[in-house]
Amino acid sequence: MITNTQRGSSSQHRASNQGFSLIELLVVVAIILIIAAIAIPNLLNSRMAANGAAAVENVRTITTAAMAYSSTYGNGFPATLAVMGGPSGGVSTCDAAILLDPVVTTPPYQKSGYTFAYTAIGAPVTAPAGCSQPGTNAYLVTATPITVNMSGVDSYCTDEPGTIHFDTTGAPAADQPSCEALPALQ
User: Fold this and answer.
1) pLDDT digit string, tens, across residues 112-148
2) 147 phi and psi, to 5 degrees?
3) How confident is the model at residue 7 (pLDDT cuts 50, 70, 90)?
């Protein structure tokens, strides 16, 4: 008797447990979509803010490397961004100073959603012995988002005083006066 009762109850239990209804599944999918709609824009904004912070740090690092190059080699500021790079583990020279990450010093000069540019400005200085390229007495560093409002929002620039300026349109600064006219990053 006990066996028959157990069999009867288990067959009734199987009949009532056939899975979720279509409505229940649609409700769960709708809830997941609502949560995703809330979370994804915040994720993208967080990623753009992180890319902007990384770009500011890279601009600061490029500025520090240019100052270190100038004081180490006596060749003014480097002629190109590539001069501040070079093979890791190699011997540093005024033509390959190994001061920066190779990702930043090799084309396309992109890192963390930004494109970096280094422009030597001013008259060339007299290159010391062993340097194939003369340096200059001024420079301009810019960082612009690869895709504005996707990889970043603001563009950044600096020159030899070392103050970092920003442009909320994401446009690169054309020259030193336009960079210095922008608001300074605090």
Assistant:
1) 999 999 999 988 999 898 899 999 999 999 999 999 9
2) -130, 110
3) low
Element (H, E) at 155: strand 155-159
154 neighbors 165 (Cβ within 8 angstroms): no
Question: Among candidates 45, 48, 59, 46, which has minimal Cα distance to 154?
Answer: 48
CA distance linking residue 185 with residue 52, whole number of Å = 12
* Selection from 64, 66, 76, 54 nearest residue 137 by Cα: 76
106, amino acid identity:
T
Q: 20-181: which CATH topology?
A: Glycoprotein, Type 4 Pilin (3.30.700)
pLDDT of residue 17: 66
Residue at token pair 């563009």: 155
Q: At 106, list the tokens.
A: 């090799």
Given a cut of 90, whether residue 1 has pLDDT beyond it is no
The kind and range of the H/E element at 57 are: helix 22-73
CA atoms of 68 and 183, how far apart (whole Å)? 26
- Mean pLDDT over each residue of the chain, to the nearest integer: 89
